[in-house]
Design goal:
The protein is an all-alpha fold. The chain has one domain. The chain is built from 4 helices and no strands. It has helices at about 1-5, 10-15, 20-35, 35-55. Helix 2 crosses helix 3. The longest helix has 21 residues, at about 35-55. InterPro entries: DUF433 (IPR007367), Homeodomain-like_sf (IPR009057), WH-like_DNA-bd_sf (IPR036388).
């Protein structure tokens, strides 16, 4: 949960911002913490892919 970890948003703020239940936000946070390595790796791979794609794509 990038909003929670990096930006310091509380579970209440996330729930309100995205019209989610507080239980759903806590469930997502629990899932993230249980699978942190895999999720962080996937996020980094996506960022690297986007960066490489931007380098190959001509800017107008």
């Amino acid at each position: 949960m990038i909003w929670h970890e990096l930006l310091g948003h509380s579970a209440d703020e996330i729930a309100a911002e995205y019209d989610l239940t507080l239980a759903g936000v806590y469930a997502a946070l629990a899932y993230y913490h249980d699978h942190r390595v895999e999720i962080d790796k996937s996020i980094q791979e996506s960022k690297s892919f986007v960066s490489a794609l931007r380098k190959r794509t001509p800017q107008e």
